[in-house]
Design goal:
CATH class of the largest domain in chain A: Alpha Beta
Number of strands of chain B: 17
Helix content of chain A: 40-55%
Order of helices and strands of chain A: HHHHHEHEEEEEHEEHHHHHHH
Shape of chain B: globular
Strand order of the largest sheet of chain B: 14-15-16-13-10-17
Largest sheet of chain A: 6 strands, mixed
Helix content of chain B: 25-40%
Number of domains of chain A: 3
Organism (chain A): Micromonospora gifhornensis
Protein name (chain A): Secreted protein
CATH architecture of the largest domain in chain A: Alpha-Beta Complex
Largest interface: A-B, 57 and 61 residues
Structural class of chain A: alpha/beta
Radius of gyration of chain B: 28 Å
Shape of chain A: globular
Radius of gyration of chain A: 25 Å
Oligomer: heterodimer
Strand order of the largest sheet of chain A: 1-2-5-6-7-8
Strand content of chain A: 5-15%
Chain lengths: 379, 509
């Protein structure tokens, strides 16, 4: 165990690190500048328990209606050995629908390492020639198996903060025409070609995590990582029906974002250097201790955090009196000044201590005068 | 986000209560608006779960779908909703008035009043838009007929949803948007979308600060969300067992009745708090005096209502799923014009809105210090009356020499900037030359030229009529936009299978 790992284990308390999934990794891209979050997520702290312990429980729940509907739709799309799925994906990719395609469910079996090995072996076997590779013949027909194949529930891995985490995506990887495509089945509808923007964005980031994990696997095992397409096939119900429709999502931008955040977490040592030695986020600790401890590691709260981070309500409370809590547009419109009290003081005409704020102060003074004038009816 | 509004938000944080950002009401409020609070079933594609609807606080009608995945029950719900909404719409098709068009050579008619729908939030508008989309193409004959009022409601809901996109329209209003237009809270825009929290800031109960009231309102156990999405723990702990109990009762009349009553009570309890908040919001908005140009914009809503009612009477087609290229360009142009006009009108109506433009140098308020009301410009072919006035202002003036300004006090008069001279104490002298709005002849009508001592606002914002752009006919769609649609093919064909072909029972379409 390295010293960093030791350190992270201490921060967590005696608990094992929380397991990541594509959703939690995708959530990491939300607020990349937040040190508190990078440290807590890097350590795999149980944030929901921590938030509850400090008195600001997270409000993330999923309705069982939504879960049922999601499962039903997924089962329907995958039915009959994925025949319908294959047709949809092939149609969307513009390749002829293969007459036969193998269907491999990699979700069987309990033992984790065995499953990881099985997923990796089967996913790469198809493209790894069985005879020794001749570097001069890279890209030869032997390199790429033309057979169509669908892999359900592959178990993938990704390095997060120096730790290997396993992802068990509810997804199918399709190998068609020699390339691999991540196929994401989502139950939100696409009505007249349009889907809910927020849900679509979330699906794109999640898919990017899977693409990244697949490419990592390929890079380790030999085949060219570029065999994994940056285009993800998204399958959703069309309009108000249960009929599935496939769309292509280009996730190149999301890949960059996720990669960048993972790299940042890989350099957790640098972040940890700025964290006090007695910092703890062990949910078993006393609430007062935890609050004091958390306040030593700076957060960068923004209202968007409420939708993605379990600790957001705590950070929001802490950010009270700061313009950041009102949202970035407000903060920018106030000349980037951090404290509400300072904004109001400058607007009141108090002398400016910092010459860099002179311009903002003049703007705020004028704004305050105009506002007062208009409200008093003098204008 | 203007600095003025941001400052109001900062003041709201300090004061603990929302601060006004408007001095007048910028939307029309009907005498009897139809408040509609929809709830949707989680996970499904816009499946209705329940709605509370009515045109007065005491007229709440609760509609529920006991088994939201059942197609027949969904359409029964839509039919019930239609039985409330359509009579409300029709009630506004009484008296009409003649409006001169084509410079008085012709007249057209418009209804004296129009229906107004109020929903809690933008998600409620989206819900109605999608409900309209899901129902307006339904067939009343064939294999899966629906009651005739279902597609009719779909068309009206689509009409309202399209009006809601039109800046300045009051036909379908989201309450959170309407309130945010008039008050700035000490929370973020995301949090303002939660109606209970927003109202907590605007009108906190006695003894509580806005922040406390908003935090209290965030707990879904105490304060159910304003829909259409329900609280997941409500779904899991209370709604799901109640729906299961209803389904399990099957043919047992008594058990079924009890289960239905239980479901109804559950959903009523979820909807009633929002229903009450909606009417509180209406009350707060009604207390504000309407802006001078609000009635003019409502005329536009009445025009649109009249036109669509005539279209329905004439058996016109339902709105297409997607606009063709020409229709889309024309719609975009219409919306942009409306957005510009709405921004100008709000500033003209409301000094607090105009103050935002004063801060950015697009408007200034000054006192007239010199006025030459009789000035004649005889440099041209014939002499014209061109009075000049000089104003002194403390506002930042960023308008260039030669710019043409107007004043909300004299909208018909143009003022061309002749000199801009910064003087001491951060003041600026501005000389403008006036034209128009002074009567005929070479002497200004009394009162038409500002006098010394008058305080005036001049702005680059102009209310002047901007002629609409011209667009080609559909059959002349340029190749850049896909060319003319193929002859004989309707612009918006229904996809194969939709509407006409048999669909499995559990499907919504």
């Amino acid at each position: 165990m390295t010293s960093s790992e030791q350190r992270l284990a201490e921060i967590r308390g005696g608990l094992p690190p929380r397991r990541h999934n594509a959703r939690t990794i995708a959530a990491l891209t939300g607020n990349p500048g937040c040190t508190r979050r990078a440290v807590l997520d890097g350590a795999g702290v149980d944030k929901p328990s921590l938030a509850e312990r400090v008195g600001f429980p997270a409000r993330f729940g999923q309705s069982r209606f939504a879960i049922t509907r999601g499962n039903t739709f997924e089962a329907q799309v995958k039915a009959d050995g994925g025949a319908e799925l294959l047709r949809l994906v092939a149609d969307r990719l513009g390749v002829p629908v293969p007459a036969v395609a193998s269907w491999t469910d990699l979700g069987d079996g309990d033992e984790l390492t065995g499953r990881v090995e099985r997923s990796a072996a089967l996913l790469t076997a198809a493209v790894t020639p069985h005879e020794p590779t001749d570097p001069g013949h890279a890209g030869s027909p032997h390199e790429v198996d033309q057979g169509a194949a669908l892999f359900d529930h592959p178990l993938l891995g990704l390095e997060v903060a120096g730790r290997r985490v396993h992802l068990e995506p509810d997804l199918v990887t399709a190998r068609l025409g020699g390339r691999f495509h991540v196929v994401e089945i989502k139950s939100f509808p696409v009505v007249d070609g349009q889907a809910d923007a927020a849900k679509l964005a979330a699906a794109a980031v999640q898919s990017a995590v899977y693409v990244l994990a697949l490419r990592d696997l390929f890079a380790m095992r030999g085949p060219d990582p570029d065999l994994v397409s940056h285009e993800v096939v998204l399958i959703c119900p069309r309009d108000f029906t249960n009929r599935p429709v496939a769309h292509l999502l280009d996730v190149r931008k999301q890949l960059l974002v996720v990669r960048r955040q993972l790299d940042r977490m890989a350099q957790l040592d640098e972040l940890l250097a700025g964290v006090p030695a007695d910092f703890t986020a062990d949910p078993a600790a006393e609430p007062a201790t935890l609050v004091a401890s958390l306040s030593q590691v700076p957060a960068r709260y923004a209202p968007d955090c409420l939708a993605s981070c379990e600790l957001a309500y705590f950070c929001r409370q802490e950010a009270g009196g700061h313009t950041a809590a009102l949202g970035r547009p407000v903060r920018e419109a106030l000349g980037g000044i951090d404290s509400v009290a300072e904004v109001l003081a400058l607007a009141d005409g108090e002398p400016v201590a910092d010459p860099q704020r002179a311009e903002a102060a003049a703007l705020l003074r004028t704004a305050a005068r105009l506002r007062a004038e208009a409200l008093s009816g003098a204008a | 986000m203007s600095t003025l509004r941001a400052l109001a938000a900062a003041q709201a944080v300090a004061a603990g209560v929302a601060q006004p950002v408007a001095t007048v009401r910028h939307l029309h409020l009907s005498r009897r608006p139809l408040v509609l609070v929809p709830l949707a079933m989680a996970g499904e594609a816009n499946a209705p779960l329940a709605a509370m609807v009515g045109a007065a606080p005491g007229e709440a009608r609760l509609l529920i779908v006991p088994q939201p995945r059942n197609r027949d029950q969904r359409f029964a719900f839509v039919a019930e909703l239609a039985a409330t909404v359509l009579p409300y719409v029709d009630a506004h098709r009484g008296a009409n008035e003649a409006v001169p068009v084509d410079r008085g050579r012709d007249v057209r008619y418009r209804y004296l009043d129009a229906p107004q729908l109020l929903v809690p939030n933008p998600a409620g508008v989206t819900f109605l838009r999608l409900l309209g989309r899901a129902t307006r193409f339904r067939r009343i004959d064939g294999d899966y007929p629906v009651p005739p009022q279902v597609p009719l409601l779909g068309r009206w809901l689509t009409f309202f949803a399209e009006r809601a996109e039109h800046p300045g329209s009051s036909a379908l209003v989201a309450m959170t948007q309407a309130l945010s237009l008039h008050w700035a809270t000490g929370q973020s825009a995301v949090e303002d979308l939660h109606l209970p929290a927003l109202l907590g800031w605007i009108a906190p109960p006695a003894g509580r600060s806005g922040a406390e009231a908003a935090a209290w309102a965030e707990d879904p156990q105490r304060c159910p969300p304003a829909g259409p999405a329900t609280d997941p723990s409500f779904d899991n702990e209370r709604l799901a067992p109640a729906i299961e109990a209803y389904a399990a009762a099957e043919a047992d009349e008594v058990a079924r009745g009890e289960a239905y009553a239980e479901l109804e009570k559950l959903l009523r309890d979820q909807l009633t708090p929002t229903w009450e908040l909606m009417w509180r919001g209406v009350g707060l908005l009604r207390a504000l005096p309407p802006g001078a140009r609000v009635a003019g914009r409502w005329d536009g809503d009445r025009d649109a209502f009249t036109a669509y009612a005539d279209h329905v009477d004439a058996d016109g087609a339902p709105q297409p799923r997607r606009d063709g290229a020409v229709a889309a360009a024309a719609r975009l142009h219409r919306l942009e014009r409306a957005a510009d006009l709405y921004a100008v009108q709000r500033a003209y109506d409301d000094p607090l809105v105009m103050a935002e433009y004063r801060l950015t140098g697009e408007a200034f308020v000054g006192e007239v210090v010199l006025a030459d009301a009789a000035r004649i410009d005889d440099s041209g072919r014939r002499p014209v009356l061109r009075p000049r006035i000089q104003l002194v202002t403390t506002d930042p003036v960023l308008v260039p020499v030669g710019a043409v300004l107007s004043s909300p006090a004299r909208p018909a008069q143009k003022a061309r900037v002749v000199f801009v001279t910064p003087v001491a104490d951060g003041k600026t002298e501005v000389v403008v030359e006036l034209s128009g709005g002074m009567g005929r002849g070479l002497t200004a009508a009394p009162g038409s030229v500002p006098e010394v001592g008058e305080r005036l606002c001049y702005t680059t914002l102009s209310e002047a009529y901007v002629p609409a752009g011209s667009f080609p006919a559909v059959e002349e769609t340029p190749w850049t936009h896909g060319g003319p649609p193929a002859a004989g093919v309707p612009v918006d064909p229904l996809p194969a299978g939709e509407g006409a072909a048999p669909v499995p029972d559990e499907e919504w379409t």
